[in-house]
């Protein structure tokens, strides 16, 4: 049973009403088609109204939805001949970050992304999408390999943040993230970043340095979670909704701030409602930008990336 978001309940009630009328018409052999059509039209209009006017907190809820497609689901639909690689060659493998090589429309690419679980057992295995240092070091190993063989890199961001447990800190969590930021800024191969769900703090940034950065329509990107911010500002995590309103964390806010280059359209109701359409929209964006980046020599590519990074946060 999918998670039911609070703001979706009126739509669900109307949908159930339509089903009841359809069942009634069938069982009693009566024509209720005009009444049903009126309700269907009302439902579609309600959906358009609701999903085009979501509050920041509602977007947070939608971005965190368990039914939302994950990195591996997008990889399965985007790439052919995908081979997943494991391990950082230093400590171990981290299931919260997945990566490997595959073919996107006849272009060999390296794809890396955060991976959340689809249920309790899977979430425990994936550590709820919160990577350890070995996850980031695995990602860097694959990026360096991509640079060596001149393969473009695509990263998918979907994490509440890097794991802050004792073991992760002992193994150098901060250092692993910092090294990724430095090395990604210098990689001599194109990098395209797509935020597909949550973009949380340094845990997201460690895969987020790119030549093109995009976000799905209902994804979020922030330096801290709304719960974390409200705990710091007001000593009360229950004020997360209030925090979300002031954080400018939605794709639309981030685009206005000039941090990202593109908002990728989602189907009505969110990416989970039609993963094929969402995947096609992502693919269309990547294939539009990738040839432009691949046509640049490495010196120009790095120069443009440097300029892009330097412009983020500039106040005029």
Automatic annotation (TrEMBL):
Function: Component of the acetyl coenzyme A carboxylase (ACC) complex. First, biotin carboxylase catalyzes the carboxylation of biotin on its carrier protein (BCCP) and then the CO(2) group is transferred by the carboxyltransferase to acetyl-CoA to form malonyl-CoA.
UniProt key word Lyase: no
Organism of this sequence: Thermohalobacter berrensis
Protein name according to UniProt: Acetyl-coenzyme A carboxylase carboxyl transferase subunit alpha
EC number: 2.1.3.15
InterPro entries xref list: Acetyl_CoA_COase_a_su, ClpP/crotonase-like_dom_sf, COA_CT_C
PANTHER family the UniProt entry points to: ACETYL-COENZYME A CARBOXYLASE CARBOXYL TRANSFERASE SUBUNIT ALPHA, ACETYL-COENZYME A CARBOXYLASE CARBOXYL TRANSFERASE SUBUNIT ALPHA, CHLOROPLASTIC
SUPFAM superfamilies on file: ClpP/crotonase
Annotated metabolic or biological route of this protein: Lipid metabolism; malonyl-CoA biosynthesis; malonyl-CoA from acetyl-CoA: step 1/1
Taxonomic superkingdom: Bacteria
Gene3D superfamilies: 2-enoyl-CoA Hydratase, Chain A, domain 1
GO cellular component: acetyl-CoA carboxylase complex
Subunit structure and binding partners: Acetyl-CoA carboxylase is a heterohexamer composed of biotin carboxyl carrier protein (AccB), biotin carboxylase (AccC) and two subunits each of ACCase subunit alpha (AccA) and ACCase subunit beta (AccD).
Main location per the UniProt record: cytoplasm
Domain called CoA carboxyltransferase C-terminal: residue spans: 31-292
GO molecular function, one term: carboxyl- or carbamoyltransferase activity
Alphabetized UniProt keyword annotations: ATP-binding, Coiled coil, Cytoplasm, Fatty acid biosynthesis, Fatty acid metabolism, Lipid biosynthesis, Lipid metabolism, Nucleotide-binding, Transferase
Family: Belongs to the AccA family.
PROSITE patterns given in the database record: COA_CT_CTER
Annotated Pfam families: ACCA
Coiled-coil intervals: 11-49
Subcellular location field: Cytoplasm
Chemical reaction(s) catalysed: N(6)-carboxybiotinyl-L-lysyl-[protein] + acetyl-CoA = N(6)-biotinyl-L-lysyl-[protein] + malonyl-CoA
GO biological process, one term: fatty acid biosynthetic process
